[in-house]
Amino acid sequence: MDLSDIKNALSLEELETVRVKLLGKKGIISQKFKELKNLSEEERKKVAKELNELKEKALELIAQKRKELEEKLLEEKLKSERIDVTLFNPKPTGAIHPITDTMNKIVDFFTKLNFSVETGPLVEDDFHNFEALNLPKYHPARDMQDTFYFKDGSLLRTHTSPVQIRTMMKQKPPIRMISPGAVFRRDYDLTHTPMFHQVEGLVVDEKGKVSFANLKFILETFLIHMFGDVKVRFRPSFFPFTEPSAEVDISCIFCNGVGCRVCSHTGWLEVLGCGVVDPNVFKAVGYENVSGYAFGLGVERFAMLLNKINDLRSMYEGDIRLMEQFK
Ligand code: DAH
Q1: Is there a domain that residue 248 lies in?
Q2: How many CB atoms lie within 10 A of CB 267?
Q3: Residues 201-253: pLDDT tens digits?
Q4: pLDDT, tens digit (0-9, with 9 covering 90-100), for 33-69
Q5: Is any ligand 1 atom within 6 A of the Cβ of residue 98?
Q6: Which of 1, 37, 48, 155 reaches 20 to 30 Å from 191, CA-CA?
Q7: Do 252 and 310 belong to one domain?
Q8: Does one domain contain both 42 and 120?
């Protein structure tokens, strides 16, 4: 019998067909084993030995061929997925990253309403990140669980709120600002990455000129701009730097507020935090006779909702095949 079919197989599928033809239940070799019983004792021994050797040989050749074909397949795959980054390509192959895209939309909205864009350092100190924001020494948000600390006591900012403090300390009111940027927390799961992005907003003017009503109007307008025809709900909450504080929900964009898995059957999705600036914050920056409102939101949360992303971690793996879906 001829085992050359094994050598000639061009693909893993072909190899499998050959294997079945030789060694499958009804295969040629198996058939020959069954015919042994028709032979004389002496011949049976001889033929059985030959058959066993043939079977061994066939198994060995198949394993060898399989390895060869698998290696070839892998090589072809690597070759076809190779990206030569030095090639000039007049048509860019990439896409705007969904987080960048969402950030741009948010920043665009507020700059059109005359908000200035302020930035601050990623490595912050305790004063700007916590103390001046009315987060006293014993506050649980300072927990090592959440904050990345350096040996000298400085830290990676846990929110973009310290930029409020920095801006107020270098400018006089009125202030109308947002601060977009990266923030850091010790968190890693389906919806959290240790680095993520926030946009903070702050409006400060003479006492009595800025109210919760202004805050409500601007955030409603903003959320309808971002999510389309949604209902907006303000829910009483607590933040150390605002009083009163609220969390803001939109009607679930997946079920139109009926209730589904994404909104935990509540019909609502929480999207940001806000409030009227706490007097202690103004005291910390030396402002007097002013009033203001502030808000803060997570860009990743917005991007996940807008793009139906369910594993945030995939956003930071840099896989071009994933990103191309967002073209
Ligand atoms: N800094 C808050 C956070 O990181 C977000 C926030 C909530 C900012 C309410 C605000 C605000 O300015 O008023 O979760």
Answers
A1: yes
A2: 17
A3: 999 999 999 999 999 999 999 999 999 999 999 999 999 999 999 999 999 99
A4: 999 989 888 999 999 999 999 999 999 999 999 999 9
A5: no
A6: 155
A7: yes
A8: no
Distance 179 CA to ligand 1 centre (A): 12
| SS3 of the chain: helix, strand, coil, percent, to 5 | 45, 20, 35
Q: Whose CA is nearest to atom 7 of ligand 1?
A: 273
From the CB of 173, is ligand 1 less than 6 Å away?
A: no
The CA dihedral of 260, 297, 99, 327, to the nearest 10 degrees, is 60
Residues 30 and 169 reside in one and the same domain: no
Indicate whether 178 and 61 sit together in one domain. no
Task: Find the domain containing 127 and state its range.
Answer: 98-326
Shared-domain flag, residues 162 and 72: no
In a domain, 210, yes or no: yes
Are residue 198 and residue 276 in the same domain, yes or no? yes
* CATH number, domain with residue 160: 3.30.930.10
Tokens of 108: 């665009």
Q: Which of 248, 295, 297, 302 to mutate to test the pocket of ligand 1 (most atoms within 8 A of CB)?
A: 295
93 in a structural domain: no
DSSP β-bridge partners for residue 116: 177
> Best mutation site among 124, 163, 235, 241 for ligand 1, i.e. most ligand atoms within 8 A of its Cβ?
241
* Rounded distance from Cα 105 to ligand 1 centre (Å): 19
pTM (2 decimals)? 0.75
**Collapsed DSSP state (helix, strand, coil) of residue 144:** coil
Q: Does 250 lie in the same domain as 113?
A: yes
Contact 176, 203 (CB under 8 A): yes
